[in-house]
Write a structure and sequence with these properties.
Shape: globular
Largest sheet: 8 strands, mixed
Structural class: alpha+beta
Length: about 400
């Protein structure tokens, strides 16, 4: 039986970061993934993810984001790899109620302004007039305002995971892919994991970061989280390509309450060429899906409905032809919160999930914190707000 200091189950966004930080700390670490990361079956694919520093989900997330930005930049310098494009992030709240990641649109905007003030984030609130003048790509309504977070931008998601795992391997981490962990148990003072080919490995500590499969390993989360299907679209660019060119900000726009829209939309500059289209999506936080049985194909009816409801009236430079689509998964907790904790059944088992649809930007700092926890050290960022007890107190389901 192979013996390690730490085994990390699930090597997506957070798991790959944990493996990296453990390997750099000189720990003997094994990362296991049922697929070949980066892959398209979980929550970590589709070319890009938004990052931002003034965090609307809560001001306690901003230290995670800022620490993550520093880690991404250090990894870029170490590998001469481009991972983080700091083009800014524009947030436009709804005037009609609305909600983003479990937080009301008005509170989300207030949290952004508070986080920027408390943590010195470079950004500013834009008036309706300034918003229309500076960002004509968006068919905003009278009275709309925005916040421009200049420390935000986007991350090249697959490259981030690929780079973290490659650097971790150079520092001695072992990676085992195409294997599914079916169980873990404590025996003879160690934690032993069993895989679907009946092989085993053991370690002093176990980190579980399996995203939408988290409830297979961590029983207390089974009634706390739910998985939703998300679709990413790349729509054709018909006019004014400069509105979405390199250097223009990513955006999150809560359009709930306008026309038939019921949620926020978000999008990116075009990458490579304007002919590749503009990536845009609306978030679906209702319903539930099985990660092993989710519909991976995107239908023509879905594309047409999304364009008519969330694109045509709001981003008129984009046309109805969809050049590409991807399906990914959110693992959601009440209030859009993260859950990062020790398993109540065994303190040597540490887990991180749900990330509630906004986790990738924070993943380097969360992975670093998990690595510190596994080493018996205090993380450099405060995780007290993300325990299961805090979630249970806020939502005693």
């Amino acid at each position: 039986m192979a013996q390690f200091d730490v085994i990390v189950i699930g090597c997506g966004a957070v798991g790959s970061a944990a493996v990296l930080h453990l390997a750099k700390a000189g720990r003997r670490v094994l990362g296991i993934d049922r697929f070949q990361p980066p892959h398209r079956f979980g929550s970590t694919h589709g070319e890009t993810r938004i990052t931002r520093a003034a965090i609307g989900e809560g001001v306690d997330y901003t230290p995670l984001a800022q620490r993550s930005h520093a880690i991404w930049r250090a990894l870029e310098r170490e590998t001469s790899t481009r991972l983080f494009e700091q083009c800014g992030c524009l947030f436009i709240p709804s005037q009609h109620g609305g909600e983003v990641h479990g937080v009301s649109s008005a509170q989300f905007f207030s949290n952004i302004e508070t986080a920027a003030r408390l943590h010195g984030v470079d950004g500013e609130t834009l008036s309706a007039e300034r918003l229309r003048a500076d960002y004509p790509a968006f068919a905003t309504a009278p009275g709309d305002r925005a916040f421009l977070d200049r420390e935000g931008g986007y991350l090249l998601v697959e490259d981030c995971v690929r780079t973290e795992l490659a650097v971790a391997a150079r520092h001695g981490a072992e990676l085992l892919t195409g294997r599914r962990v079916t169980a873990f148990r404590r025996a003879a003072g160690a934690l032993t994991v069993t895989m679907d080919d009946d092989t085993t490995a053991s370690a002093d500590k176990l980190i579980v970061t399996t995203g939408p499969w988290i409830t297979e390993m961590i029983a207390p989360l089974r009634r706390r989280v739910h998985v939703t299907r998300q679709v990413l679209y790349w729509f054709e660019l018909l006019s004014n390509p400069q509105h979405f060119g390199p250097g223009t900000p990513v955006f999150i726009w809560d359009v709930a309450g306008r026309d038939r829209a019921a949620s926020d939309i978000y999008g990116f500059p075009w990458l490579g060429s304007q002919d590749s289209g503009v990536k845009i999506a609306n978030e679906v936080m209702t319903g539930e899906t099985d990660p092993d049985d989710v519909a991976r194909e995107v239908t023509a009816d879905e594309i047409a409905a999304t364009y008519e409801t969330y694109v045509r009236s709001f981003v008129p430079d984009l046309g109805p032809r969809c050049l590409r689509s991807e399906v990914c998964l959110y693992t959601n907790a009440p209030g859009g919160r993260f859950v990062i904790d020790h398993d109540p059944g065994d303190a040597d088992v540490i887990y991180a999930s749900a990330c509630s649809g906004h986790g990738f930007k924070h993943s380097p700092a969360v992975g670093e914190a998990l690595a510190a926890m596994a080493r018996g050290e205090t993380p450099c960022v405060d995780l007290d707000g993300f325990t299961l007890d805090r979630l249970a107190a806020a939502d005693p389901a």
